[in-house]
Amino acid sequence: MNSQSVRASLRLSGLVAFFATMPIYSPNIVPLFSTLTDSDLTGAFVWPFMIAVAVVSLVLSILPHSVLKGTFASHAPACVVVAYPLVTALFYLIMLGFLPTSMVVARLLGAISGVLFVPCSIVLARALSPWPLESALVTVCIAAGSSALLNWFSTYLSAIPLAVLYILLLETIAVLYFTEPSKCSCDISFPAESCGSFLEIVTRFASVMAPALIGLSMFAFFMGVSRPNVTENTSADVMGTLLAAVTLAPLCLFARRFHHPLQTFFHQVLLPLLAVMILAAFAVFEPLTDCVVRALLSIGMYYFFSVAALFAVAFAIAGSSAREFSPSLVLSVVMGCFSLSTMAGIAFGGHLHLPESQTVFMPVVVIAIYCVFLVAYSIVGFWRNTSSCSDSEEDTVDSVEPTSIAVRCENLSEEFALSPRESEILGFLARGHTASFIAKTLIISESTVYTHTRNIYRKMGIGSREELLCLIERDE
User: Fold this and answer.
1) Coil, strand, or helix at residue 55?
2) What is the per-residue pLDDT for 34?
3) Fewer CB within 10 Å: C terminus or N terminus of the chain?
4) pLDDT value, residue 108
C-alpha cells in the first residue's frame, strides 16, 4: 500500500470518527442513556451546543473574507482540531460517570464544544477537497454507514469500553487534519468569480444550495420531533441511515445512465419518487396496529430523510471546493440550518404532547410538505431544461467524436489563454450542454456560467454559440 492510499485510509477513518461522535446528531448520544445518573445532563449540554453552533455559523457566514483568510492561514486550524475532540471527550466522560457531574460544567462544555464544532468542520472539509459530488457522496455514505454501525454496537457496551471507544474516535479526528495540514491552512477566501454585492451572493447561494439545505433542514426537524425505536437497542434513525448509506452508492452508478447531473437525478427523480412511495405506504398500512408494520414505516421515514441528508452533506462538501463560494460560507450555513432545525424540532415535538401511537403525525406532515416542494422543484426544473434545450438543440458538434472535442477545446484554451474554469466550461459548451446542466454539474450558479461564457467569447473574439462551434470544428 503506497503512501497516498495510507493517507486516504486515514482521512476516511477521521471522517468516520467525526460522524460517529458529533453531538449535533442525536443517535451519537443515545448509547450514553443506559449509563446516565441524571437525564437532565443531556439537555444541559445539547442546548448550549446547538445555540453555539447556530451563533458561530451566523458569524462565520457574514465575516469579511480577509478576516477568515488570516485566521485559517495561521495555527488556528491545528488548535481547533485538537481542542474540539478534547472538550467533547470531557463531556462524554461526565455523561459516563467518570468525572464529577455538574450541570454548570455540562452547559459550559456544550457551549465551548459548539463554538469549536463549526470551524473544526470547515478545517476537516478542507482536508477532503477537492472532490467531485459523486466521490463525496460515496465517501459520506461510507462514513455515515460506519457511524450507524458504531452507534448500534455502542448500545451493547458498558461504561468503560464505551468511554474507551469514544476517546479513540475523538482522537482519530485529528488524523484527518494532520494527514493534509497544508490543505486545511490554505486561503479559503472568496474566489474572484464569487465577488459581488451581498444580495448577489445570497441570490446565487440560494439558487445553488437551497434544495440540499431544505432537505437537510427537514431531516433535522424530523429527527427532533420524533425518534421511535425498532427494538430495545436499535432506533429507526440508525437503521434508516444505515440503509440509506448502503443503497446510495449503487444508485450513483445507476445515475450515470441518467445522462443528467447527479443533483438533477436526486432532487427531480429519486427523492420525489421516494416521497410518494412513503406517503402511499402510510396511507395503506398506518391504520394497522401491527408493531412490525409500524417499525418498518418508521425505518422508511428515516430512510427517506437520511437519503436527503446524506446527499446534502455530500453536496456541501463538494460545493465547498467548487470555488463558487468559500468553504466557510457553505459549511457554516449548512451547520447553522441543521442546528436551528433540530432545535425547532425538539421544541415543537416537546409541545405537541402526543401519545406514542400518534407520534407519526408530524413526520408525515413534514414528508408531505417536502414532497410538494420536490414535485414543484422538479416541474420547474424540467420546464427550464426543456426551454433551454429547445433554444440550443441545434448548437452541438454532432460530427466530432467526444475525444476529439476534448483535444480541440484544450488547444483552444491554450491558444486564447483561458482560465482553468473557462476551459472546463468550454468543454461543456462544445458538447451543447445548457447553462443549467453546467451549473448543476459544477455546483455553481447559472449566472456564473453566463459570466464565464461571456469571458470565453470575449477572449476568442466571437459573439455566439454558433461561432464557437464553427471555431471548434475548424480547429484540426
Assistant:
1) helix
2) 63
3) N
4) 92
Q: Which alpha helices (DSSP H) does 236-326 contain, by range? A: 236-256, 262-265, 271-285, 291-320
How many whole angstroms separate alpha carbon 266 and alpha carbon 440? 12
Q: Map grid coordinates 453531538 to a residue.
A: 23
Query: What is the four-CA torsion angle of 212, 213, 214, 220, rounded to 10 degrees?
Result: 110
Query: What is the distance between the terminal CA atoms of the chain, rounded to a whole angstrom?
Result: 43
Residue type, 93: L
Judge whether 325 and 333 are in contact, CB under 8 Å.
no
CA distances (Å), origin 333, targets 129, 201, 278, 338, 439: 18, 13, 29, 9, 20
State yes or no: pLDDT of 46 exceeds 80: yes
C-alpha cell at 105: 460544567
Nearest CA-CA partner of 413 in 389, 400, 429: 429
Cα torsion through 169, 173, 178, 179, rounded to 10: 80
pLDDT digits (tens, 9 = 90+) for 436-459: 888 888 888 888 899 899 999 999
With beta carbons less than 8 A apart as the criterion, state whether 280 and 180 touch. no
| Helices 3-21 and 133-154, packing angle to 10 deg | 60
- Amino acid identity at 131: W
What nine digits make up the cell of 107? 452547559
Helix (H, G, I), strand (E, B) or coil at 74: coil
CA distance 403 to 246: 34
Q: Return the minimum-mean-pLDDT range out of 89-93, 179-183, 406-410.
A: 179-183
